[in-house]
Structure formats: structure tokens, C-alpha cells
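Input record, target 12 of the design panel.
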């Protein structure tokens, strides 16, 4: 398996299947998808995209003006879970962000995925909150140098 940069459109298929089942593919777009500093990563195995994540420049007020990135749309296809695809993708992003002199990455994790982020070294902040139609979420972050 390897990691590569992909377009926003190339994330839609897996976003739809894993994160937004039953939603039209043209509703799988996120508002910051095409901003100049946004990037999208895929883990590819045998020419198939098996895991995706999108990273946009966005600050949590909690961390003041520290340069930060927001991880959104993290998903691994059901058949390929537990093979480290997701963690390989996040670690690749962290290395890439370091080169851009960014040292803080955060996400609003589904509560069911908190363990995945904890294993990568993320810490929870604040209380869990409900996102209508999806469920409970927890803000998490990782600082890296
Ligand atoms: C969360 C998700 C992206 C993890 O992807 P993955 O490719 O299966 O993760 P990895 O194989 O890299 O897992 C790395 C480690 O985290 C653990 N892990 C993975 N998902 C986990 C979860 N939901 N809860 C607890 N631990 C989890 C794995 O067991 C593994 O542990 P190990 O290193 O001790 O073996 C994937 O389960 C998924 O797409 N879930 C549905 C959508 C979702 O919830 N996305 C996150 C939105 S915030």
C-alpha cells in the first residue's frame, strides 16, 4: 500500500460509502475542499483507494493563532479496516505538515473512532457533542514537532 495526494472529487466515492451512506454523491463535498491550502490523501492498494482523509487550514479558537490543520472525512473502506491504512495516512499527513511548519492537527472525531485517534497520539479536549444525523463527536488534537 502507498499514500498519494488526490483531488477532492476522488474522495467522494469512499466518503459516500463510509461516511454518508444514502446521501447523493454531489452532497459529499465539504466547504473547504477546494481551498488552495487544502490537501486530500488516499492510501492505495492494488490501484484501489482504500482509505482517505482531507486536511484543511482551519484554526480552533482554543489554540489561539497557532497555525493548525483540521482533519476531516477520515474513512477506510470496510473490507480494509485494521490493516493500518488509516494510521499510515495520518502519519504521512503529519510528516507533510511538519515540512510546512505546521505542528498542530485537530479533528472532530466520531465517538466510535476516538480509540483510533488515541492510538495515533491525539488527546481529547472539551465535552462530546452531538452532530445532527451522525451522532456524538469529540474534538481531539495532536501536537508534533
Ligand atoms: C476509524 C477508521 C478510519 C480507522 O481506519 P483503519 O484503517 O481501520 O485504522 P488502522 O488499521 O490504521 O488502525 C490503527 C489502530 O487503531 C485501532 N482502531 C481503528 N479503528 C478504531 C476504532 N474505531 N476504535 C478503536 N480503535 C480503533 C486499530 O485496532 C489499530 O490498533 P493497533 O495498532 O493496536 O492494531 C475506520 O475504522 C473507519 O473508516 N471507520 C468508519 C468511519 C469513521 O468513523 N471515520 C472517522 C470519522 S471521525
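The sequence produced for target 12 reads:
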Amino acid at each position: 500500500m502507498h499514500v498519494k495526494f488526490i483531488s477532492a472529487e476522488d474522495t467522494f466515492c469512499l466518503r459516500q460509502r463510509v461516511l454518508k451512506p444514502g446521501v447523493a454523491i454531489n452532497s459529499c463535498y465539504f466547504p473547504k475542499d477546494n481551498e488552495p491550502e487544502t490537501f486530500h490523501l488516499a492510501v492505495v492498494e492494488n490501484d484501489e483507494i482504500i482509505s482517505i482523509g482531507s486536511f484543511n487550514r482551519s484554526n480552533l479558537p482554543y489554540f489561539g493563532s497557532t497555525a493548525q490543520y483540521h482533519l476531516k472525512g477520515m474513512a477506510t473502506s470496510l473490507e480494509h479496516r485494521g490493516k493500518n491504512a488509516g494510521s499510515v495516512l495520518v502519519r504521512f499527513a503529519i510528516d507533510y505538515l511538519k515540512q510546512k511548519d505546521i505542528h498542530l492537527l485537530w479533528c472532530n472525531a466520531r465517538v466510535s473512532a476516538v480509540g483510533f485517534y488515541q492510538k495515533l497520539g491525539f488527546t481529547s479536549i472539551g465535552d462530546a457533542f452531538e452532530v445532527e444525523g451522525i451522532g456524538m463527536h469529540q474534538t481531539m488534537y495532536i501536537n508534533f514537532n
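Helices lie at 12-19, 85-99, 114-119.
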